[in-house]
Amino acid sequence: MPTVDDVAQAAGVSRQTVSNVLNSPEIVREATRQRVLEAISSLGYRPHASARRLRTRKSATIGVRIDPWRDGISGAVLDRFLHKLTEHADARGLRVMVFSAADPDDELARIRRLREGSDVDAFVLTATTHGDERIRALTEQGVPFVAFGRPWDPETSAVRHRWVDVDGRAGVAGAVRHLREQGARRVGWIGWPHGSGTGDERRAGWEAACGVDADARAALARHVEDGVTEGSRAAAELLALPEPPDAIVCASDSLALGAMIAARTAGRPALPVVGFDDTPVAAAVGLSSIEQPLDDVVAAALDLLFGPAGDDVRPNPSSDEEPTDRLLAPRLVERRPGHLALDAIPGT
Amino acid sequence: MPTVDDVAQAAGVSRQTVSNVLNSPEIVREATRQRVLEAISSLGYRPHASARRLRTRKSATIGVRIDPWRDGISGAVLDRFLHKLTEHADARGLRVMVFSAADPDDELARIRRLREGSDVDAFVLTATTHGDERIRALTEQGVPFVAFGRPWDPETSAVRHRWVDVDGRAGVAGAVRHLREQGARRVGWIGWPHGSGTGDERRAGWEAACGVDADARAALARHVEDGVTEGSRAAAELLALPEPPDAIVCASDSLALGAMIAARTAGRPALPVVGFDDTPVAAAVGLSSIEQPLDDVVAAALDLLFGPAGDDVRPNPSSDEEPTDRLLAPRLVERRPGHLALDAIPGT
DNA sequence: CTGAAAGCGCTAACAG
DNA sequence: CTGTTAGCGCTTTCAG
């Protein structure tokens, strides 16, 4: 495997010039540069990443914790996020290292280890929670990071840090408004129990846009654990109401799938149902869903960490100079329900 | 950040002794070892990974290509594989680096780059195909790797390499046999078009175990592209037969979900349907499914690469010494269909 | 703009 | 068993 010295010799320059061609091309005379570049490609030279890292103390690598696979359909979002992250990172010449951890403490320990070896420059935190310990800890330790998920409590908000999130409230409100424009008068809601930041935000979007009074809202909303069965049961309840909803928006695709099945079972296969996250299942069964703009999320996260271009990690934000967060709007993906099995049966 | 020198000084030994304590503890006297260990933890010393890599020319890191997210439910298997891989790797002190690539050529180029920088010691190839170019290329280049997926053609089989796969044929045959023990007399099959190794294997399992003659087999089998809609349509056809199947086994959960919906629509909600891969969707809707033993797959892959313990990559196999592949049996996860929406509707 | 010198932190050889 | 001596390949001073 050739080294800088080999290249230098082949090009008839000093070792340093080669390094300059690679790292600060603008200060090298064009002719020399060409000669060096030629030598590089004819020798098939590749800089040795570890040597460079040892010297520069950076790795151009970002770390992401990869969660244990949770049951439920919604978990897929983080996987898609990881895919996107990898693609964008590759495009910027960054590498992505994944690791697993049993709990937040374990995650912090692993992060420390990865960083001390200069294995990883910066981290992406996913799934922020109420009272997330990670944010304060990493900020105190000076570990550069960006969170996918806004701060959900005042203490965490007070810690100035970088984050990107998707505006679930706006997404749901938009979907509800759209349904009403299509003629829906009573849009139901199936969401999660109160207390999860994400869930409460999404529900707030429904509340703001559904256009019915508090009593009707109480009747038209259900809050259950995430799951197809739960969504099915909740939807069945709503549909059995004296004044049933004429459309249902759900906090997740799992709930929405359940609602869709319940609607069919109740003889209302055309009931508009909207899910959240636009998972593959939604696409597969023809369910409308609110899609998180993961491409934009990832691009924003990398911008925050590394600046608009380049692979130099910026230190965590200290004062209030530039913006350190980004809230992105999701998009409704519309599909026609019922295009599926019913039509597919010959003779129906 | 402390270095070996700091530790050596604190412990009153030479720099080398510290290194020995870390890398060959058995050659250091117990008392000295203790003293060094104490210094290490009191200083919070961590070896610098890049320096070590530069010196030893290995990284204790494995690389995995992460595919662009495909639509369809089945893609989830590779994600779960990645999760498992990360967990097992962490347990062995290995790191996992993910990267994306546009196509197999691009993948090879990226692999070369990652390896030349000593960024990655070995690779895990997923989703092997007919005429997979990667296997020959990596073998020729001497890049250590293990494939998740057996060789599907004679040329690739002739290239001695390490691989792990799941015996889809045995899995399907087992499921069919089980259904027959439960009383099914005509077990149908919905699979993929001929030509995909995986699909053909699974179909062969059905063929071997279904216990009907060739004519009946022809009637009871459908081969369609993967997808819920396709599965639904195929199942509807089978159920409309003069002698319909009394159970259906499918090559994927997507197909099975479609079949399940079709069965309900056709008024046969209790028809046993079995999918493949045991994806979250199957669990969500209560679909039986054949589960790939990913834990075992990953453990076997790492064993093949690194030996039963340790983090030293073995070179690719040359002669026929040890076994270099492993075929694992999947497991049927049984669920009761129909526990879902129908029962959940109040008043039914 | 180009060249020479120094050293990042670590471990593989050797000599004691 | 312990200490000394050399680099791994690269970049960052600092003179020419």
Automatic annotation (TrEMBL), chains A, B:
Keyword annotations of the record: DNA-binding, Transcription, Transcription regulation
Chain ranges of the HTH lacI-type domain: 2-56
The keyword Protein transport belongs to this UniProt entry's keyword annotation: no
Secretion signal, residue range per the UniProt entry: none
GO molecular function, one term: DNA binding
RNA-binding listed as a keyword: no
Protein name, per record: LacI family DNA-binding transcriptional regulator
Organism the protein comes from: Agromyces indicus
